[in-house]
Amino acid sequence: MSQTDILVVVDVQNDFLPGGALAVPDGGAVVAPINALAQHFAHVILTQDWHPAGHISFASSHVGRAPFETVTLADGRPQVLWPDHCLQGTTGAALSQGLRIRQAELIIRKGYRTSLDSYSAFVEADARTPTGLAGYLRERGFTRVFVTGLATDFCVAWTALDARKAGFATVVIVDATRGIDAGGSMAAAWAAMDAARVARMMTRDVLALSIEPRANSGR
Ligand code: VGL
Ligand code: ZN
User: Fold this and answer.
1) How many angstroms separate the alpha carbon of residue 137 from the centre of ligand 2?
2) Ligand 1 centre from 210 Cα, in Å?
3) For residue 217, what pLDDT is reported?
């Protein structure tokens, strides 16, 4: 891929993988395509969900509430509640040992404020607290963002939508993601991404694009 393309690997962390606290169905299937893709990108960044104890997105922080319920926060925003996951510094929050991306240039952490969640790698859930990623990508000269990882309908979708809002051409590599699909969230996420002109590609098509054309004589 070109020097202005970047691969973003969202939340491939133990808690979202089989056996983890918030395991995404078939989540482990993203690791092999992501490793294959990473060899064809000159630039790769990773994200890491990174919550303090007592985080607002944890059902355990809300009396009488269970995981996967939705509550309305004090400012009127809905918040889906989750099992405790990705606690800062724990094994569950660690990036998968299966990733083979030594060259990754940046790890962006998100959701590290007790009272604010963040699905997107660009802007936290209040829709105005930036993570700094848009500025980083702009300053580095990237123009096109390829998004992979977990979960399709939460952190991947919100990251892709915010990448579009920030003005980047954006591609989700479908088979390098897996979703949670709570209450129709998968269909809603794809509809929102389609409306925002987020492109969808398969890993094999992205790899085929990265083949260097052979010089030809024109005949
Ligand atoms: C995620 C739910 C809660 C994700 C993170 O990575 O998609 N989902 N925290
Ligand atoms: Zn989280």
Assistant:
1) 23
2) 30
3) 66
Nearest CA to ligand 1 atom 2: 154
Query: Is the pLDDT confidence value at 19 over 90?
Result: yes
Q: Is the pTM of this model over 0.70?
A: yes
Q: Could you tell me if 96 and 35 are in contact, meaning their C-beta atoms sit under 8 angstroms apart? A: no
